[in-house]
Amino acid sequence: MNHNEHNHHHHHHHNHQGESEVKANVTYNDEVVSIELEDQEGAAPKLAIEHEKEMHFIMVSNDLEEYYHLHPEKQKDGLYTVNQSLNDGTYQAFVDIVPEGKAYQPVPNTVQVGTNETGKANLESEDNWTKEMDGYTVTLEDVEAKVGEEVPLIFDAHGETPDPYLGALGHVVILDENAEQYIHVHPDSDDTTTFSAHFPEPGMYKIWGEFKFGDDVHIYSFIIEVTE
């Protein structure tokens, strides 16, 4: 269990940035993404292994059209890098880590590539809950998402069982329409494609479900509305 999940129940008058005792700085240069980490003393935090990696790194374009889930490698204490070519535009990067003994909440790091600025998404409700990628079909069962409740996200792979990927049968990432809220999502167990999510505020959210079939990871996206 990620001990930060319940931060939003505390009555602190901080913004999300204030809750984190570790800061991440993300830069992009010559097709390399660099992530620098430091705690409140300016030291490099020690990271726990989560889903087989020290760091999961999610990068999305501002309009939520482009999505990358990367695994930067440690170059030295406090510095992680990963090679990724990005199209020009504005991106939000989320550094998903579990620093040992430190409170941490992923917040958006804006990364501008080139000069073309990308506007924010305006998500529309959709009623297509079945998506096909490269011959594999995944359906997200009806979701009734309310703020503050545990919301089950049940993915049906139509008789296929996804191959284990990073210690689970799938990974799910959720962002709000403004690409500001990064929602922690956990599989109910290692051998299921049912996940649980908590939503802090009402609004439109985009879900990316990642499932591995054979050698390839396929990404299925869905848009849901969360109500009070």
Overall description:
This protein is mainly β. 2% of the residues lie in helices and 46% in strands. It is built from one helix and 18 strands. The protein has one helix at 16-19; strands at residues 22-29, 32-39, 56-61, 67-70, 73-76, 79-83, 89-96, 109-113, 130-133, 136-140, 145-146, 150-156, 171-176, 182-183, 185-187, 194-198, 203-213, 216-227. A five-stranded antiparallel beta sheet has the order 9-10-12-16-15, with no helix packed on it. A five-stranded mixed beta sheet has the order 11-18-17-13-14, with no helix packed on it. The chain is globular. Mean pLDDT is 91; it is low at 1-17.
Give the uncertain stretches in residue-range form.
Answer: 1-17
Question: Could you give the count of β-strands?
Answer: 18
Order of secondary-structure elements: HEEEEEEEEEEEEEEEEEE
Helical segment count: 1
Task: Look at the helices and sheets and give the structural class.
Answer: mainly beta
- The amount of helix comes to under 10%
Span between N and C termini?
25 Å
Tell me the Rg in angstroms: 17 Å
Dominant shape? globular
Mean pLDDT: 91
Cross-sheet strand order for the largest sheet: 9-10-12-16-15
User: How many strands, which pairing sense, and closed or not: the largest β-sheet?
Assistant: 5 strands, antiparallel
Q: Give the strand content.
A: over 45%
